[in-house]
Queue: 4 jobs
Job 1
Amino acid sequence: MSTSTEAAQHDTRFFGHPRGLANLFGVEMWERFSYYGMLGILAIYLYYKADQGGLGIDQGDALGVVGAYGGTVYLATVIGAWVADRLLGSERTLFYSAILVMIGHIALALLPGLTGIGVGLACVAIGSGGLKANATAVVGTLYAEGDERRDAGFTIFYMGINLGGFIGPLLTGLAQSEVGFHLGFGLAAIGMALGLIQYTLGRKNLGEKASEIPNPLQPSQRFMAIGVAVVILAAVVALILSGVVGPSNLADVVVYVVVAISVVYFVVILTSKKITADERSRVFSFIPMYIASAAFFSLYQQQSTVVSVYSDQRLDRNLFGWDMPVSWVNSINPVFIIIFAPIVAAIWTKLGPKQPSTPMKFVLGTVLMGLAFLLFLPMTGTGVNGSPLIALAGILLVFTIAELMLSPVGLSLSTKLAPKAFRTQMVALNFLSVSLGTALSGKLAESYDVHDEGPYFSIIGGVAIVIGLALLALIPFIRRLMKGVH
């Protein structure tokens, strides 16, 4: 281990933790500030008319674009992890990704119309994916094996994520409602710039281990990888400029791409001669949980699509004579996460071996998510901006409890079930399930009709419950396939 890495790991200058944790906390907080701040106003920017400051895109297409964008972010985490492992190392990938995020928000703030949307969302999606994939990995390098501060360090880091997610929609939403959309996007750019500045000043605190390239490509392979990337980028640009891919079918394209990549990943792992029979069985056990995860996120991620429209057109946002900005609703979930995540974690710790198995947690998460959508049904007759804010807050609380049942354990499960030769690929499959679900959230949202919402909420909520119950019925079979993994 290098001297700089040892110094970083023995550092206690940040509340007993390495000083580098403060830099990572900051850059992740500001990235989440910019990401959720922008996401809180993105849907309404796309479908608001020009006299409202928007682009006037069809509402269904606008929600499809938002879902496709979110799916691309999670797809980009897979790319970001590969770049770190093979080309740049986690720390440099994180740094360049943060720069790309800032450029994307600047493009959204300054470039007009669909040009700003295309350039801005592409940069933010790829940058956020790269940053998201590597920030956690760099936090891990700050602690030596067996360091008892590790879990507490990740908890502090996790708080940064939710703090940014809470503050971002508040400030960008206020800027949008009082001045205009481009100031809201501009605030997201400023937030990311602040995160990048403080991170740059503290890069020396991270140690050399954060910059290691675990499995570097050979020089000849690097040229090939760059060539493939250039060809793919050129193909994507050509498809967009020719009109083959556009707002009306973007969500479909992302769904098809993620499904294809996921199938390839599963086939490559399951047919490999590098895995044992028990490892192959565990990979098979992950398939129904992959499907449940995608179903869960196809509903959960509608906070940025259908819930945004609902907040705009169906929610009574009047607070003592003042209309609350639409995006402020996006700050409710982070508050609930901050409050309830420690409680749920403490419950699992208290229960120990008696806690529900991972498949059962997936069942609980999926069923609760379906029930959350059914909770919209009693408000279907409340009229324009007639639904009470407290009711939506209660529904979002159910969203949060469902998230805490499934989301934190998904990544852990993928590492538990992963064959030794395919650890990274299994983690990638978990992110791909989130990517698929997020893209589907946009695709499903295209069918939402604010004037006839009963069928939408009942059918989608009901399907999620059926998927959860089907998974419940399969638990004995899945547990056998998991070969002792709880």
Job 2
Amino acid sequence: MERDDQLELYGVVADRLKVAHARVRTLQVPEGVRMALTRKLLVITAAAKHDLADAARRLEWFTADLDEGRYPEDVHADGSP
């Protein structure tokens, strides 16, 4: 039973990551901001391999920030402030 729950959570997190990536791609923000958001999503994706519950929480916070329009500070394409 627990394994089924884990697999279901993987599916939910994977679907939400796809949606989050699509949202970031369509945002009208400077390229540096888009890159910073994409890096955050990649960190969440990597975290899902080790701690799925933590990754789900991080993704929830990330999505809430997007919904509220809270983005990283504008950074240059090379990642420098």
Job 3
Amino acid sequence: MPIVSIASFEDRRMVAVPAAPAEAATRLGRIWAAVLLWHEKREGRRALRNLTASELKDIGVSQSEAAREIGKSFFWD
């Protein structure tokens, strides 16, 4: 069992916390990675939505490609 320090303003105590099962930590890690990926996609599409036609041309993306990407759901893809 790992020892985890709990800091308080009055005193510092050491508390024994049972370790999580490896598969739960892995599952939680996968869920967190998916949430981060969804957030990145959402922010990227939001930024793409705000670009002008000349800015899209500068990065090599046509307006129709940008519109198709913006229309995608961040959750399912």
Job 4
Amino acid sequence: MRTFVILFSAICMMSVSSCATRVVTRPASVTVVKTPPRNYKVVTVKGKRYYFWNGKHYRKTRRGYVFVRV
């Protein structure tokens, strides 16, 4: 009986597969704008500060301004 339980548990462990998969994504190429143009506007959306010019929203980072979708 003991060997049957061990054999049964080993078969169950081998046949059960995990549903977890690993998804690896590459970061998109990001264009950083060092200085904004003179006619930019500061826009607040949901309590966060964005900079708007040329029909696009940008977020300020350490490296400069990065395009974001709001």
